[in-house]
Amino acid sequence: MAKSGTPRPLSDTPAIPAAGGTSGRTKASAPAEPGLAELRAKIDLIDRELVARMNERATLAGQIGHLKQASGQQTYDPSREEMVLSKVASHSTGPLAAESLKSVFRELISGSRAIEQHIRVAHLGPAWTYSHLAALHRFGSSVEFVPVGSISAAFEEVHAGHSHYGVVPLENSTDGRIADTLDNFSRLPVKICAEVPLRIHHNLLAACDRASIQEVYSRPQALSQCRNWLARHLPGARLIEVTSTSFAAETARRTPHAAAIASRQAGVHYGLDVLAENIEDVAGNTTRFAVIGHADSGRTGHDKTSLMFEIEHKPGGLADALAIPKRQKLNLTWIESFPLAGEERGYVFFVELEGHRDDMRVRRAIAALERRCKRVVVLGSYATAAAVG
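Above: the chain sequence. Below: its structure as tokens.
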């Protein structure tokens, strides 16, 4: 028996709360999840703030445009825009993808630019060709697109001043150089001011089922890039070359038992079904487009310079010319030879090297080439761009 005043031992058995009661402790209730109306109200508020800030940004961009015009500078600066887009992507921590953010800001920049300057951009047409898609990626939708029937016509539009810029294919990762483009660079004094590496995804489009297809229309390059797939899946179909992939889609729409190889966007535009997607034979199929104009782009620190040169036809002439960039520790990223019209065994060479024409090592290389070659033309310096699409 416990002595009076001695504390009673605590029981090991917990007290049982009365029915419907608690043990004296209450758990903190979790905050209620916001409802649909509350979430929509928050989005509406953010949208209003975004609109105000975008218009504020456009006003500032307009002031920069006025300053450029007053000092005789080009309003459109592709190198600066490339830097802005890269910076935007670097600021993001998600969940939006970098390409999604770049697309939004590209349209914002395009709309802001259109307030101050009406820009015309020539491309191989009609709409929704790969050239048009490359132009959209570079300029946004707030420009006047000028569809033309050939690469030569795009060069002529820019050379004559009818269009401010042109977008032309330069090379494809599967088929190599685009001969028409190189030929026009050798004839007309236009510059490369930007590049657009566009991932090319070919689609089989038709208004009929695959078993009914007797003819397939597309550009020669597209047919070539899908030749193995076509041989396996449509061995009996007749392949017909046309001037553009969009014209191929239009033809397939109005021709019984016909299909086209073109972009998905062209299929949507012409009301065709996608019977097979990504039918290109080589994964990662990419066409690099050049934006042509009359002015160089500024330095970004991540640039390329394209050159065209002609050498004496003698042993070691090309090796001597190509040794010059090596001595300046400049990396060559592209080289092509192209026959000169009317000259037997005469060639002009196209090279692309890392660096801007204002960089000291590039300036030294150009000066050395000018001493060594019959002719040297700097086609342009421009920012290195990542593949899109």
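The CA atoms of residues 136 and 145 lie 9 Å apart.
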